[in-house]
Amino acid sequence: MKILITGGAGFIGSHIADAYVSAGHDVVIVDDLTTGREEFVPKGARFIKMDITSPEIDDLFEQEKFQVVNHHAAHMELRVSVDKPLHDAEVNILGSVRLLEAARRTHVHHCVLASSVAVLGNFLTIPADETHPTRPISPYGVSKLAMEHYAEYFRTSHGMRITVFRYTNIYGPRQNPFGESGVVGIFLNKFLNGSVATIHGDGEQLRDYLYVSDVVRANLIATERSLNGTFMLCANSETSVNEVVRLLHEHIHAKDASFPCEVENGPSKVGDPPITRGSFARFSALSGWKPATGIDHGIAETTAWFLNRR
Ligand SMILES: NC(=O)c1ccc[n+]([C@@H]2O[C@H](COP(=O)([O-])OP(=O)(O)OC[C@H]3O[C@@H](n4cnc5c(N)ncnc54)[C@H](O)[C@@H]3O)[C@@H](O)[C@H]2O)c1
Fold this sequence. Notes:
By secondary structure, the chain is of the alpha/beta class. The chain folds into two domains: 2-170 and 209-233, NAD(P)-binding Rossmann-like Domain (Rossmann fold, 3-Layer(aba) Sandwich), CATH 3.40.50.720; 173-207 and 238-277 and 293-308, UDP-galactose 4-epimerase, domain 1. The chain is built from ten helices and 13 strands. The protein has helices spanning 11-22, 56-64, 78-83, 85-105, 139-158, 183-193, 212-225, 241-255, 281-287, 295-308; strands at 2-6, 26-31, 46-49, 68-71, 110-116, 162-167, 169-171, 197-200, 206-207, 209-211, 229-233, 239-240, 263-266. The strands form four sheets. A seven-stranded parallel beta sheet has the order 3-2-1-4-5-6-11, sandwiched between helices. A two-stranded parallel sheet has the order 7-10. Strand 1, helix 1 (11-22) and strand 2 form a beta-alpha-beta unit. Helix 4 (85-105) runs parallel beside helix 5 and helix 8 crosses helix 10. The protein is globular and about 55 Å long. The protein starts with a strand and ends with a helix. The mean pLDDT is 96. Bound molecules: nicotinamide-adenine-dinucleotide (NAD). Nicotinamide-adenine-dinucleotide binds at residues 6-7, 9-13, 30-36, 51-53, 72-76, 91, 95, 114, 116, 167, 169-170, 176, 181-182.
């Protein structure tokens, strides 16, 4: 199939691009490289440096006649979304609508959209499933929820088939170490650079971490079956930030004991919930998907990748 991946030079998108290329698909990647890296684009894919909000996107769809669109490009720094909600909305809402509209016009068969558990806001039930209320507490969450509503509009009014995945905390090799939503990548970067990592609060907050290869598998399944619907994509497990730090220490020191791996405790982040955990039961019932990589192995793989590229 001819597949467009937006954000395919980024962390998650580039892993999905690798898998699509390996599966024999004709892959085109659109990315403006704001956080992505051209070196992550697989050899077998065609790379086009383009902003998803630009009108050139419309011409691209007309020329290429994609069968599938996998949309991972986004602005995703929570704090910047608070400081600059307009920019966040331009990329995440208007950019997504431009893609969906171009997909409709050119009869794209299936779309996959990367959403986030940020659409839920504070977790009211644990584990949270797809029936959980959506009351986002950041402009980023609002923008992802708006994208979800547009997806529903295009499904119901135009019969489009769209998979929406609400990701929890995704981690793994190529993770952006400078963002604000990826404690594994951020801490690894600090530890390997000899800087001190700051744990916000006491570090006992629990998060649901999902390894990137499990996310890739879910995207492949959604694409193969042209699934239509909105799904939580998570591990339904809880790991504290302190436990993540302990695992990072263990795996870094197993390779090189000379890294000091220092941490300090800073003030809690406003609105940082004590626990987030999701249920993947809906997606699993439909597809048989289950997370396959535990946090220990996932952190070992991620640590090895960060160490190798130093
Ligand atoms: N990483 C996570 O834990 C997580 C959690 C929930 C949702 N998500 C979603 O998954 C998707 C991928 O996230 P990621 O972690 O790989 O982040 P990432 O920053 O590595 O990837 C995003 C990519 O989009 C590109 N991009 C940004 N703005 C663009 C624009 N205007 N035009 C074209 N390209 C643009 C960036 O250059 C980058 O390559 C995003 O939609 C994000 O909101 C990620």
